[in-house]
């Protein structure tokens, strides 16, 4: 299958350095790789704020349209949350060069990735609902354009009638999907309640995406859940068990969706039912890639999302993974700087530190 070709567009303030702008594009480039596309062109546009009409300004929008033709681009991605009208105006400029061109913002790209990775009915419904919520304002925004084309002043044009039909259909579909999801959520709540009634402690593995959470989950539970070197390999919360023979006690361990920077609040809300395993957990293991040069920033991202979910007050312990890629100095620094979180140091790849982590968890329960 031929990979789709992308233009990535990032609008940054004039005060932003070139290095900061390039770092900002790194993650969305990883998202493109996860989606399966080929990153062809990066555009960094310096503006105090996004342009109201085209997000990037008319001149830059024309440049994008020219590149779509010259480079045979399939998808234009804006690295931000854009309004429907802004995406539509860029789309109009690119239609002549490629009638099948797609123009997405950051949320669109993440939702497309989610739709590829969802496996359970619950995750699929969550993604469908998140997509519809994201598209809802877009339907209304484009509807205004169609209405203006369809009728004159004081008239009700054909476009306006179509928009009303679209709105009604959108609301009905949203309601049906929400009802289905609520039923699945009730089932999950019953499972969580049942475990607590049985006295089973729950440990939830959380962290930034692609830090080795699922690989650690597999090691601790003996499961063989998919673990890939891509963003969002895990969308569903998956539960396994770990038995401590020394104290004859069993605990439940869950692996959850990985977090990323600038994850829109609507997407966090969409996965709240999946994240229920973390919300109701007794202990959180925050897995961190110690070899990541942006480690400190990503720790803050995870901490913020945990605060947004109102679960930052639970016992949280840091588990630094991939220690086989760093030297002793780096480990000593993390041990000192994050001592309050009783940090554990492991390598899922080599197995170093896993036994120590096992006994650490046993002590905490």
Features:
Rossmann fold, 3 domains, 6-stranded mixed β-sheet, GTP binding, single chain, alpha/beta, 365 residues, 4-stranded parallel β-sheet
Question: How would you characterize this protein structure?
Answer:
With 365 residues, the protein is α/β, with parallel strands linked by helices. It has three domains: 5-114, GTPase HflX, N-terminal domain (Rossmann fold); 119-180; 200-364, Rossmann fold (3-Layer(aba) Sandwich). 49% of the residues lie in helices and 17% in strands. The chain is built from twelve helices and ten strands. The strands form two sheets. It has a six-stranded mixed sheet with strand order 6-7-5-8-9-10, with helices on both faces. A four-stranded parallel sheet has the order 2-1-3-4, sandwiched between helices. Helix 4 (106-117) packs antiparallel against helix 5 (121-150). The radius of gyration is 23 Å and the shape is globular. The N and C termini lie far apart (49 Å). The relative contact order is 0.09. GTPase that associates with the 50S ribosomal subunit and may have a role during protein synthesis or ribosome biogenesis. Its cofactor is Mg(2+). Mg(2+) binds at residues 214, 234.
């Amino acid at each position: 299958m031929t990979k789709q070709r992308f233009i990535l567009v990032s609008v940054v303030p004039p005060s932003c350095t070139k290095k900061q702008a390039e770092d900002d594009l790194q993650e969305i480039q990883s998202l493109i790789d996860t989606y399966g596309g080929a990153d062809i062109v990066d555009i960094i546009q310096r503006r105090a704020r996004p342009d109201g009409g085209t997000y990037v300004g008319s001149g830059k929008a024309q440049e994008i349209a020219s590149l779509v033709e010259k480079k045979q681009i399939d998808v234009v991605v804006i690295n931000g949350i854009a309004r429907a009208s802004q995406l539509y105006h860029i789309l109009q400029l690119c239609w002549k060069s490629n009638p099948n061109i797609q123009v997405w913002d950051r949320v669109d790209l993440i939702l497309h990735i989610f739709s590829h990775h969802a496996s359970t009915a619950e995750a699929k419904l969550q993604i469908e609902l998140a997509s519809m919520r994201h598209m809802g304002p877009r339907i209304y925004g484009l509807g205004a354009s169609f209405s203006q084309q369809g009728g004159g002043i004081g008239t009700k044009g054909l476009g306006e009638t179509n928009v009303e039909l679209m709105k009604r259909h959108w609301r009905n579909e949203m309601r049906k999907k929400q009802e289905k999801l609520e039923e699945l959520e009730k089932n999950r709540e019953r499972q969580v309640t049942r475990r607590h009634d049985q006295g089973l402690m729950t440990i939830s593995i959380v962290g930034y995406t692609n830090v080795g959470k699922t690989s650690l989950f597999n090691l601790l539970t003996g499961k063989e859940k998919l673990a890939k070197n891509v963003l969002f390999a895990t969308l569903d919360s998956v539960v396994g068990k770990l038995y401590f023979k020394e104290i004859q006690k069993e605990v439940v361990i869950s692996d959850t969706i990985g977090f990323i920077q600038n994850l829109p609040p609507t997407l966090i809300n969409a996965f709240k039912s999946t994240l229920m395993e973390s919300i109701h957990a007794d202990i959180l293991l925050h897995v961190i890639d110690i070899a990541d040069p942006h480690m400190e920033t990503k720790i803050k991202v995870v901490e913020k999302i945990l605060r947004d979910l109102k679960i930052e007050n639970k016992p949280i312990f840091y588990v630094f993974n991939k220690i086989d890629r760093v030297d002793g100095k780096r480990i000593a620094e993390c041990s000192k700087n994050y001592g309050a979180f009783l940090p554990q140091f492991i390598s899922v790849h080599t197995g170093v530190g896993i036994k120590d982590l096992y006994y650490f968890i046993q002590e905490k329960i």
